[in-house]
Specification:
This protein is α/β, with parallel strands linked by helices. It has two domains: 2-119, Rossmann fold (3-Layer(aba) Sandwich), CATH 3.40.50.2300; 126-216, Winged helix-like DNA-binding domain superfamily/Winged helix DNA-binding domain (Arc Repressor Mutant, subunit A). The chain has eight helices and eleven strands. The chain has a five-stranded parallel beta sheet, sandwiched between helices. A four-stranded antiparallel beta sheet has the order 6-7-8-9, with helices on one face. A two-stranded antiparallel sheet has the order 10-11. β10 (206-209) and β11 (213-216) form a beta hairpin. α6 crosses α8. It starts with a strand and ends in an 8-residue tail after the last strand. Residues 2-116 form the Response regulatory domain. Residues 124-218 bind DNA. Residues 124-218 form the OmpR/PhoB-type domain.
Length: 224
């Protein structure tokens, strides 16, 4: 899962990106509104953390342009605690949630997890596919109760497929959501990661849809 952090405070930006990466996400960063708008307009993100008070272009304008342009990714805005009007403006502009500064990083992480789950149609912090369980809060996965020992890329792949359970996901889409914008992307590596993931899970849950991509679904479920 890939997140964009748009925050001009370099220390706070770094803290958020570090927390996201430690939780198994891919995190891109921007330090002003123009750069943030460009990335959000041209790259596919599963969620965005967007500060309201940005240089070059304020966060409300960035958000309004995204929504006007048809960008529907969940957006969590960061607001000043005493500026209730910013919260109202952000929600009216299309924000999905907000956090007031100063805040605990854990609260932001919890809200980001919730936004991503809701966008994919999941209500619980735990996503289940047959014997495989994905704990989005703890960034852990198990199969039949036993821990799955995954590399960061394998975990990102499993997380994306489970969030989009039952859907056919192309190699290109997986690449776009597993790597940041600076990574030298190669869709051929996806096949390698899928093979490793299948072997570690030991159950046949990931279907190869020839010419289209992959679909993960519980055993016995017919393709929709």
């Amino acid at each position: 899962m890939r997140i964009l952090v748009v925050e001009d405070d370099k220390d706070l930006n770094r803290q958020l990106v570090t927390a996201l990466e430690e939780a198994g996400y891919v995190a891109d960063r921007a330090f002003d509104g123009e750069e943030g708008h460009f990335l959000g307009d041209t790259e596919p993100y599963d969620a965005v953390i967007l500060d309201i008070g940005l240089p070059e272009m304020d966060g409300i304008s960035v958000l309004e342009r995204w929504r006007t342009g048809g960008r529907t990714m969940p957006v969590l805005i960061l607001t000043a605690r005493d500026r209730w009007s910013d919260k109202v403006s952000g929600i009216d502009a299309g924000a999905d949630d907000y956090v007031a500064k100063p805040f605990h990083i854990e609260e932001v992480m919890a809200r980001v997890r919730a936004l991503i789950r809701r966008a994919a149609g999941h209500a619980s912090s735990e996503i289940v596919c047959g014997p495989v369980r994905l704990d989005t809060k703890g960034a852990r996965a198990t199969v039949s109760g036993a821990p799955l020992r995954l590399t960061s890329h394998e975990f990102r792949l499993l997380s994306y497929l489970m969030h989009h359970m039952g859907e056919v996901v192309s190699r290109t889409e997986l690449v776009e959501h597993m790597y940041d914008q600076d990574f030298d992307r190669d869709s051929n590596t996806i096949e390698v990661f899928v093979g490793r993931l299948r072997k570690k899970m030991g159950v046949d849950l990931i279907e190869t849809v020839r010419g289209l991509g992959y679909r993960m679904q519980p055993p016995g479920d017919a393709p929709s």
